[in-house]
Structure formats: C-alpha cells, structure tokens
Amino acid sequence: MVDRNRCEAKDGCVEVCPYGVFEVRVLTPEERAGVSLRGRLNLLVHRNRQAVVLAPDDCHACGLCVAACPEHAIRLTPRA
C-alpha cells in the first residue's frame, strides 16, 4: 500500500522491485480524493505524480520497496 499523504514520486520502489509491481505516474482524480493537505502539497510539487501499485498479485512481500522509500510511504499489508 502506498500512503498518498507521504509519497513524493521518487521511483526507488520502481527501481528495486524485481516483480514490476510499481509505477510512478499522474494520479487520477479518484486516486487524489481524500488526500490531506500534506498530500496535496506533495502532489502539487510533483505534478500530481506518485507511486502506484499496478500488480498487487505479483508482489512477493520481499520488502525491498519499503526499504527503498525515503518517505516511508510504502507498507506491506496482508491479502484478504
């Protein structure tokens, strides 16, 4: 899970993920909904770009993305 209020669109998660789970791209209006003031400021500075989980089923929970994120915006969550 990517915390929309913390992500600053640095692509460390994309670079380290061996499974191609992430992409940094412009968020849709739906993805931007409910973002805090801090998150809106991050989006403004980074031209509405953030990391997005493209393929959650491909994640192997290796934790490389968590370690690579300088904003601590990525958290591994159990699947239901």
Word description of this protein:
The chain is of the alpha+beta class. It has one domain (12-68). Helix content is 29%, strand content 12%. It has helices spanning 12-16, 29-32, 37-45, 64-68; strands spanning 22-26, 49-53. It has a two-stranded antiparallel ribbon with strand order 1-2. The longest helix is centred in the middle third of the chain and has 9 residues, at 37-45. The chain is globular, with a radius of gyration of 12 Å. The mean pLDDT is 94.
**Protein structure class:** alpha+beta
Number of domains: 1
The first-to-last residue Cα distance is 13 Å
- The order of strands across the largest sheet is 1-2
Oligomer class:
single chain
Proportion in helices: 25-40%
Encode the helix/strand succession as letters. Answer: HEHHEH
**What is the averaged pLDDT score?**
94
Tell me about the largest β-sheet: 2 strands, antiparallel
Can you count the helices? 4
Taking pLDDT < 50 over at least 5 consecutive residues as the criterion, the unreliable ranges are none
Report the principal-axis shape: globular
User: How many whole angstroms does the radius of gyration measure?
Assistant: 12 Å
Number of strands: 2
What proportion strand?
A: 5-15%
Brief synopsis:
This protein has 80 residues and is α+β, with helices and mostly antiparallel strands. The chain has one domain. The protein has four helices and two strands; from the N terminus they run H-E-H-H-E-H.
